[in-house]
Design brief:
alpha+beta; five-stranded antiparallel beta sheet; two-stranded antiparallel ribbon
């Protein structure tokens, strides 16, 4: 008998090799797309982290600023606000909007806040308390990791399915051959018994 591997399917109980190959190609195409998507999100998060770090490094001069006003976020259903800080630097008054939109209860108008400014351009500021932007790069990177995990899961599932879809028919063939051999042996034994019986009935009593 033919010792080959057959694959279960819908057509006559088996699927063709091309059908299985197509499914595998689709699975790995999905994995490739997930890997690329995860890589893009990871790179975006890394770039944003470096941008924030560079921004911090530029703002090296500490200064006292007063919250003079708020700018509301234009996002729908958002109550976050961006504080407007006012401060004096070498006799010049500056009013600079925060880089982050924060909880409106964080500051009140008239509050004094410790911020850092860029001495070369005081309009560039950094407030350590405005940590909202720092969470965004981390979110991008975490989502990237999750997508990579999904890609790995798809690979594992595809491999497991391919392994379990293969049924070793040669094992079944061995069982069938054994059964055939046993039947043949039984038939030969029956023939021998018949021949002995005939001998006893004819020649044995002469």
């Amino acid at each position: 008998m033919n010792n080959t591997y057959r694959q279960h399917g819908k057509n006559n109980g088996y699927t063709s090799f091309d059908g299985k190959k197509l499914k595998t190609m689709k699975a790995f195409s999905a994995v490739f797309a997930l890997v690329v998507m995860g890589l893009m999100l990871f790179m975006m998060g890394t770039f944003a982290e470096r941008s924030i770090e560079n921004h911090k490094n530029q703002c090296t001069v500490p200064i006292k600023a007063v919250v003079k006003d708020f700018v509301r976020s234009n996002k729908e259903n958002s109550s976050d606000v961006a504080p407007i800080y006012e401060f004096n630097f070498y006799g010049t008054k500056y009013s600079v909007k925060s880089n982050s939109y924060l909880d409106p209860n964080l500051y009140d108008i008239g509050d004094t806040v410790d911020i850092y400014i860029n001495p070369l351009d005081p309009n560039i500021i950094f407030n350590p308390e405005d940590g909202a932007d720092e969470s965004i790069p981390k979110i991008f990177k975490v989502i990237g990791y999750i997508i990579w995990g999904l890609a790995g899961l798809v690979i594992i599932i595809t491999i497991v399915k391919n392994v379990h879809s293969r049924v070793p028919v040669n094992h079944l063939d061995d069982v069938s051959d054994k059964c055939v051999d046993e039947v043949s042996t039984f038939e030969e034994s029956s023939d021998c018994i018949d021949e002995v019986s005939v001998y006893d009935e004819t020649d044995g009593y002469q």
